[in-house]
Amino acid sequence: MNKEFLQSLREQIKSGTVTEQEPMSRHTSFSIGGPADVFVQPATREEIRSAVYCAKEAGIPFFVMGNGSNLLVSDEGFRGMIIQIGKNFQEISVKDTVIEVQAGALLSRTARAAWNAGLTGFEFAAGIPGSVGGAVRMNAGAYGSNIGNYVIKVEGVDYDGHRLSLSGSELNFSYRDSSLFGLDAVVTYIYL
Q1: Residue 79 to residue 119: CA distance in whole angstroms
Q2: Is 91:113 a contact under the CB 8 Å cutoff?
Q3: 76: DSSP letter
Q4: Strand 35-41 with 78-84, pairing
Q5: Quick check: 98 and 191 in contact, CB under 8 A?
Q6: Nearest to 34 by CA among 73, 84, 83, 80
Q7: Which SS3 state, helix, strand or coil, does residue 44 take?
Q8: Lesser CB count within 10 Å: N end or C end of the chain?
Q9: Alpha carbon distance 60, 143 (integer Å)
Q10: Which string of DSSP letters, residue by residue, matches 91-158?
Q11: How many other CB atoms sit within 10 Å of the CB of residue 167?
């Protein structure tokens, strides 16, 4: 991997982590996968933006992952950079009847936070593995409900480094789908 790229990346990722040749088997629910050339776990919205922007500017292929649930990675690994929106980016806060969730938070923890705050309706998500960001992107659901029914808005960053904010209705949720699949963007915050 290009040393200038790695140096620039490390200068911008201060709170999170940057590792080389990270075995992806440590980060997937199936415990399989060879090493990623570069593995980044950003801890702030700005670090997510910086990681995406650095990769794009350097022409480095990158893939954004959440919790690694149901993710298959080749034993040969990934030639490029994997950005995991996960353990370093999973805060949940409840204000009145709105839940603000960082994209790396687990669905099960978010359902528990809603329950503890006396908010009902989100119980369907308690048993779904994965992060809230990934769940929103693919409109995860169970027991006749889906997360798209609860999304007020999402915030994120596009691959050019610009912030974006989309309302739930702008995401065009359908069965296991949303308009996020058509966007070159990373979801950072979700409001439920």
Answers
A1: 43
A2: no
A3: T
A4: parallel
A5: yes
A6: 73
A7: coil
A8: N
A9: 40
A10: -EEEETTEEEEETTSBHHHHHHHHHHTT--S-GGGGG--SBHHHHHHHT-EETTEEGGGT--EEEEEE
A11: 11
* Displacement of CA 25 from its chain's centroid (Å): 18
Kindly report, residue by residue over 25-66, the tens digit of the pLDDT. Answer: 999 999 999 999 999 999 999 999 999 999 999 999 999 999
Taking each helix axis from N to C end, the angle separating 3-12 and 45-58, rounded to the nearest 10 degrees, works out to: 160
> Which residues, 6+ apart, have CB-to-CB distance to 18 below 8 Å?
6, 9, 10, 38, 39, 40
How much is the pTM? 0.93
CA-closest candidate to residue 58, choices 9, 112, 123:
9
Question: CB-based contacts of 181: which residues, under 8 Å, 6+ apart?
Answer: 137, 138
